[in-house]
Amino acid sequence: MGSKKNKFTALDKIRGVLSIFVFFILLLFFTPFILLLLIVSFGRLSSFVVENIGPLISKPVMAVLGIKFKVKKHADSFPSPAIYIINHNSTLDVLTILALGLPRVRFVAKWEFQYNPLFFIVGRLTGQVFIRREKTDKAIATLQKAMKRIKRDRLSLMFAPEGSRNHPGIIGPFKKGPFRMAQQLEYPIVPIYFEGNRQLSEGATFYTKPGTCTAHIYPAIDTSDWTTENLTEHINEVRNRYLDWAKVHESSNKKVNNS
The whole model's pTM is what? Predict the structure, then answer.
């Protein structure tokens, strides 16, 4: 299934520019407060910052864009800690990820986010994990280094297994890294499917159409019986769920090529 490129109105573009301004003003406003909280708590309030201030920044920005954000939970409870995974093909994903305010979660983000000094300061102080996605060996080394801290503090991690929003098909190939991490940490996987993000703002543009984005949080997937031998099979099973949720078939997507 393909998708038509969005045609944005002048108002959509004005909203897009204004949303960026609002995002960075809010981030600038909250950064001293975040620093103060982390200093007086000796870093113990890092999770509080992610869970509470993230939504306070993202939700006003979505309001400027004319976006209504919903969360639909498909289970009564969710394990913690866990590995959360999302589908990724829109710049809106950054806002919807922050708006979730998930408990004790740390994000695995691309290295380039640190080029913005505010992202660098807040991200480093709250313990986010920045990886060089184009350099697999360095990405793995960074994750391995972070793993001891993640397990010691019983933190959850959030990954986009497609790696980048620029991928073939509506649901791109899944990389093995997040699933190997789930194995090593002995964490379950909680899949989150963002519905509407791609339709409202596809690709790298910061322009978006007004509408509704829904985060579907599905029941956790037990990984206790996963092995090196059956890992690829399980990854394909998880990816097929995303294809079903996106209402596409493998024949209309690029074939899986785990890396």
Answer: 0.88
